[in-house]
Amino acid sequence: MKGEQIQTLHPLPGKTNKRIALEKYEVIKEQILSILGQSELTHTELMEQLYANVKDSFEGGVQWYGETVKLDLEARKVIERTGTKPEKYRLKTSND
Fold this sequence. Notes:
two-stranded antiparallel ribbon; alpha+beta; Arc Repressor Mutant, subunit A; 3-stranded antiparallel sheet; 3 helices
């Protein structure tokens, strides 16, 4: 039986993101928010840290799920890109 699914969003208008298992979404989302709560990271650093955190307990492609959830969090304005070189990701502050 398939578990509950979530339709993820994409930050670019007109693009649709994937439907994924809600349980996997929550695991990856929690990790991304926890990682970015500590520091701003480049895409590579974020994905490497995510992989290191969940590789022993997560079933599925960590990088694929990480990218899908990262895009969704960007679209929901939970995280944002810094616009610097190299570009980094950070939690979006509520006063923006």
